[in-house]
Amino acid sequence: MTEDDVKFYGSLCYQIIGCAMTVHRELHGGLLEEVYQEAIAIEFDENDFNYEREKLIEIFYKGQKLKKFYKADFLCFKKIVVELKSVERLIPEHRAQLINYLRLSNKPVGLLINFGDSSLKCEKYIFDETTNNFKAF
Q: Could you state, in order of their start, the residue ranges of all structural domains in the chain?
């Protein structure tokens, strides 16, 4: 990913996080994840975001599509996987979930947003499909 790509995705992530901050400011922390999912969808609509809610992520094995699939909370701008949580603190399993979604969907950027605390927490990850590596940014 080039520096221009990082700037471009950083700008889109900034917009998504802004919507999450608006939701958190209004609803505060500690509600059910589904409540935040519905509220942030309203923010995305009001900001004319291109997004898909509960985006299915298909899994392939040896070229064959499996019956099992994953479901990401959002796919924004056709490139950024957004996974919401409402937990006391993020744990490695939450990060692994997002990273698996990125790897399986071949999307370059993921956001992990936690509404469960008194302050909003966001983590951004970049997936490099050529090296199969992830890094926070």
A: 3-136
With 0-12 / 13-18 / 19 or more C-beta atoms within 10 angstroms meaning exposed / middle / buried, residue 49 is middle
Cα–Cα distances in angstroms (integers) from residue 86 to residues 9, 114, 124, in the given order: 24, 5, 17
- With H, G, I as helix, E, B as strand and everything else as coil, classify residue 68: strand
Q: How far is CA 98 from CA 20, 41, 49, 66, in A?
A: 17, 19, 21, 19
What distance in Å separates the CA atoms of residue 101 and residue 117, rounded to the nearest whole number? 24
Averaged pLDDT, 78-89? 97
Q: What is the pTM of this model?
A: 0.94
Confidence of residue 39 (pLDDT cuts 50, 70, 90): very high
Closest CA to 81 of 37, 124, 34, 19: 124
Chain centre distance of CA 88: 18
pLDDT of residue 137: 84
